[in-house]
């Protein structure tokens, strides 16, 4: 049977608001040892994601003034727990993103359920080879 | 002035071009899922295998594919004495997630370190290593959301 995103996704995600300063976002990522931060609005809907590469966009700028909304990669595609894993991997490869936001299956929902991480896929590949 | 050698990671994960993707995947797993530098037996850097490059082979026979078939060829010579600003600009321009640092005195393309965009984020955050405890007392709105 075809594997789905739900097999490997992690529930929950580190998040910040769109008005969080870039310096704070960098600190959130660093303190939590994560390479991403999801940007949400007041209704907890996903606006986009910030990676280490996104933070680089603000290099040389005043990081206390620059906001999360200035550097986020907008959330434009929908991955749900029932999306085939192979389809999610193709999306990661095509867009060069290592963390995919997973939202609810409900139509139009932008409530975040969790994330699919590239390292979890590599981990699964290593485990499969050990079997 | 902070230089590349001040913040780069000196612990490089190396494989040979003829190593299989299976071996590369195991190397990644054993090393916090960091990318693997592909080097010729002479010690010269040939390329870099990223995590995104290996997941293309999910569900396939990993022993049939070689590191040299999936690596991104790497030709840039980044000097350890470069200021961080130069490395950050190069990353922005080339869209490289990692820069391989080579020793300019040791022969052609001899790797001595790797610099990731996350290393630069660490520098940009202004947090000194060992000072995380203070940052952990940050405002409550920095939370982990869950459904």
Helices and strands in order, then pairings?
The complex is a heterodimer of chains A (131) and B (147).
Chain A: E1 10-11, E2 13-17, H1 22-31, E3 36-40, E4 46-51, H2 52-56, H3 68-71, E5 73-74, H4 85-95, E6 99-103, E7 112-117, H5 118-130
Parallel strand pairs in A: 2-3
Antiparallel strand pairs in A: 1-7, 3-4, 4-5, 6-7
Chain B: H1 4-7, E1 14-15, H2 21-30, E2 36-39, E3 45-49, H3 51-55, H4 67-70, E4 72-73, H5 84-94, E5 98-102, E6 111-116, H6 117-125, H7 132-135, E7 144-145
Parallel strand pairs in B: 1-2
Antiparallel strand pairs in B: 2-3, 3-4, 5-6
What does this structure look like?
The complex is a heterodimer of chains A (131) and B (147). Chain A is of the alpha+beta class and 131 residues long. Chain A has a single domain, classed as CBS-domain. Chain A is built from five helices and seven strands, in the order ββαββααβαββα. In chain A, the strands form two sheets. Chain A has a four-stranded mixed β-sheet. The radius of gyration of chain B is 17 Å and the shape is globular. Chain B starts with a helix and ends with a strand. In chain B, 32% of the residues lie in helices and 18% in strands. Chains A and B meet through strand 2, helix 1, helix 2, helix 4 and strand 7 of A and helix 2, helix 3, helix 5, helix 6 and strand 7 of B.
């Amino acid at each position: 049977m075809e594997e789905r995103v739900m097999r490997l996704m992690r529930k929950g995600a580190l998040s910040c608001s769109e008005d969080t300063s870039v310096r704070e976002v960098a600190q959130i990522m660093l303190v939590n040892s994560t390479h991403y931060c999801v940007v949400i609005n007041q209704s907890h809907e996903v606006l986009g994601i910030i990676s280490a590469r996104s933070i680089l966009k603000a290099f040389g700028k005043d990081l206390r003034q620059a906001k999360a909304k200035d550097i986020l990669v907008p959330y434009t595609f929908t991955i749900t727990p029932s999306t085939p894993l192979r389809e999610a991997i193709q999306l990661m490869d095509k867009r060069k993103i290592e963390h995919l936001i997973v939202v609810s299956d409900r139509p139009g929902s932008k409530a975040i359920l969790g994330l699919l991480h590239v390292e979890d896929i590599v981990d699964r590949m290593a485990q499969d080879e050990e079997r | 002035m902070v230089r590349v050698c001040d913040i780069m990671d000196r612990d490089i994960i190396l494989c040979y071009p003829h190593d299989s993707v299976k071996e590369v995947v195991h190397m990644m797993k054993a090393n916090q899922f960091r990318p693997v530098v592909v080097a010729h037996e002479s010690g010269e850097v040939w390329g870099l295998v990223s995590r995104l490059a290996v997941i293309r082979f999910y569900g396939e026979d990993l022993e049939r594919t070689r590191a040299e078939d999936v690596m991104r060829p790497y030709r840039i010579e980044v000097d350890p004495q470069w200021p961080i600003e130069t490395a950050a600009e190069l990353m922005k321009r080339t869209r490289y997630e990692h820069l391989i640092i080579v020793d300019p005195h040791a022969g052609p393309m001899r790797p001595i370190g790797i610099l990731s965009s996350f290393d630069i984020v660490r520098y940009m955050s202004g947090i000194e290593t060992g000072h995380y405890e203070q940052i952990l007392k940050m405002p409550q709105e920095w939370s982990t959301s869950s459904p």
